[in-house]
Structure to design on (518 residues):
């Protein structure tokens, strides 16, 4: 709690945790002038309606079209809005559509930035692994009816974990300074028909989680052995890695900060 | 297994268990000539495409617009379709949209009728009871942010259980011979934020589950005491009972047959 009342009207930095079903949206990031539905656009429209001021929000992860979130983090300057911080979720949930919800609010220091201050992000990719699909999970998972070799998937997952150049796991058309990232952990949970891959890292390249999942699935379906993942990492070419799995299995679970 | 090969081409009665997310559909029942999307329409379109014959399906429960199913049962005559019964789910799931799935298939005697042969149906009504909504459950539950008195709900639920005239719990405009039904059980499960009411009975009047839930919620929110439910039953007038809760919390879970 670093809320300094003397700064009211100047800068009042609010951090919100946001959950959404991304099915109906063209991703998190507002695409001004296009008329496309975005999560950021809905949040800003709601904040404008409630506060009467123009508000720009910063999101921790720019999730793609169809990708969901349970723990997206945003921050914005509420300097012009006279509402107690703890009341923001209730107020916003009253005007947001049912597929977006604010789950938490807190005051943060002026220099807190939802994206740049983040020290880790956790994404989950859900696979529905059964012969028969479940319509209630079709929006939230990727249906894979074939048998998956989880021992092989875990072996390959271990090879991806750590600090690597993930150039092979990056979609085209998204220039970045460095393609080195630290994947802190990659847990594979297959206790039921719903298989969940949890990726926690210091950052992810464009489509990196979906390409890693597509590659691990190829290992699980015995298209190549786990060790092949090492060659993909070393080769640093997108065409070496597996396909980009569809967006609906992906969910931004958590963003962590040092403060 | 009462499949008689000598009857092939004449009558081959197939029973399917079907699951669906009903959000995008105007209910189970086909509304010919309207162009409206229905579950029955999708199933018949798929069967026509696969079998090359015109097929009419009979559903156990005519679920309303927006209502889901995990265990809807249908039957149809597959006399003109040369496919082994056990392969039907895989074949149909390949041509049905992702929000409808066939989960089981079996041969049944000629006189099996999905609706008239049913001896019980189980519906679940899901309430999401938390101050903060969950976007991932918004399609599958009714969001109630206020505190619910579950002791009172269970007391009222016990009064509804048994053989009663449920005239007060029937929506207008659906003539039936008798409004007496036997509600075998009504279980209230509130172990988490997701509260589930399971209704098992020999049949349900139009909107009966949703009106019973609306009435139980009024008890849970302390609008009237549990005993009041007795007066509603005795009064036999729709206006005495609670409101019809929205469709997305409702799901047809199971249909049971004596054979």
């Amino acid at each position: 709690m670093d809320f300094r009342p003397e700064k009211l009207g100047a800068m009042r930095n609010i951090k919100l945790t946001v959950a959404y079903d991304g099915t109906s949206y063209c991703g998190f990031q507002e695409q001004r002038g296009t008329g496309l539905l975005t999560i950021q656009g809905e949040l800003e429209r709601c904040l404008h309606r409630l506060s009467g001021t123009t508000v720009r929000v910063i999101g921790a992860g720019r999730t793609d079209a169809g990708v969901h979130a349970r723990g997206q983090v945003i921050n914005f300057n509420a300097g012009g809005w006279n509402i107690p911080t703890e009341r923001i979720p209730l107020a916003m949930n009253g005007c947001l559509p049912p597929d977006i919800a604010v789950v938490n609010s807190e005051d943060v220091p002026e220099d807190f930035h939802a994206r740049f201050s983040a020290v880790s992000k956790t994404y989950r990719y859900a696979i529905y692994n059964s012969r028969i699909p479940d319509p209630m999970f079709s929006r939230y998972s990727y249906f894979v009816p074939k048998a998956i070799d989880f021992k092989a998937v875990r072996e390959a997952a271990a090879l991806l974990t750590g600090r690597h150049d993930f150039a092979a796991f990056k979609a085209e058309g998204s220039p970045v300074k460095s393609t080195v990232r630290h994947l802190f952990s990659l847990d594979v949970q297959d206790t039921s028909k719903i298989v969940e891959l949890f990726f926690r890292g210091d950052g992810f390249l464009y489509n990196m989680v979906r390409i890693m999942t597509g590659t691990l699935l190829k290992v699980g379906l015995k298209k190549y052995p786990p060790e092949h993942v090492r060659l993909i990492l070393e080769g640093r070419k997108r065409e070496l890695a597996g396909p980009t799995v569809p967006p609906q299995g992906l969910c931004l679970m958590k963003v962590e900060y040092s403060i």
About this structure: The interface with chain A takes residues 19-21, 68, 70, 89-90, 93, 98-103, 131-136, 138-140, 143 of chain B (CB under 8 Å). Residues 39-51 of chain B form the longest helix (13 residues). Chain B has two domains: 5-107, 118-257. The mean pLDDT of chain B is 92.
